[in-house]
């Protein structure tokens, strides 16, 4: 089992940047495929980005490609989300999530049900 804690959220002006961190405790983070999701009140939680266990492959939803970068430091048991050129529509609670799957032979890493562990979320607010 792994416990996840996000940090780094806050209020930023449009065009600005933030870096979110997701620190893991318990089982080593290298055992998990990691994702970031976000949720706005009244809407479903949506996929943002994900990274393989080794960090060798990353995936992004179209709306954040070229602006967001996911990375991981397995030695520090931490996953990062660097967000740049932020837009008001990026405003949401951001969650990191861990899945023991590899998705090599199936599954959908964009779906919340594929992830066993979730952090408590961190609020990101982008003002126009």
Notable characteristics:
128 residues, mainly beta, seven-stranded mixed sheet, four-stranded antiparallel sheet, 49% strand, globular
Rg from C-alpha positions? 14 Å
How much helix, percentage-wise, in residues? under 10%
Helix/sheet category: mainly beta
Instruction: Tell how many strands the DSSP assignment holds.
Output: 11
Helical element count? 0
Strand fraction equals over 45%
Uncertain regions spanning at least 5 consecutive residues: none
Q: Name the overall outline.
A: globular
Order of helices and strands: EEEEEEEEEEE
**How can the largest sheet be summarized?**
7 strands, mixed
Looking at how many chains there are and whether they match, the oligomeric state comes to single chain
What would the average pLDDT be, to the nearest integer? 96
Give the terminus-to-terminus CA distance: 40 Å
What does this structure look like?
The strands form two sheets. Strands 2, 4, 5, 6, 9, 10 and 11 form a seven-stranded mixed beta sheet that branches. A four-stranded antiparallel beta sheet has the order 1-3-8-7, with no helix packed on it. The chain contains no helices and eleven strands. The protein is globular. The protein is mainly beta. The mean pLDDT is 96. The chain starts with a strand and ends with a strand. A hairpin with a 6-residue loop joins strand 5 and strand 6.
């Amino acid at each position: 089992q792994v416990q996840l804690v996000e940090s780094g959220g806050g209020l930023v002006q449009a065009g600005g940047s933030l870096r979110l961190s997701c620190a893991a405790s318990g089982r080593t983070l290298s055992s998990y495929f990691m994702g970031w999701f976000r949720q706005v009140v009244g809407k479903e939680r949506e996929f943002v980005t994900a990274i393989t266990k080794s960090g060798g492959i990353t995936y992004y939803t179209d709306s954040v490609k070229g602006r967001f970068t996911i990375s991981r430091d397995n030695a520090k048991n931490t996953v990062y989300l660097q967000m740049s050129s932020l837009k008001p529509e990026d405003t949401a609670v951001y969650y990191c999530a861990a899945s023991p799957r590899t998705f090599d032979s199936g599954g959908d890493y964009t779906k919340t049900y594929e992830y066993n562990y979730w952090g408590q979320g961190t609020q990101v607010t982008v003002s126009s």
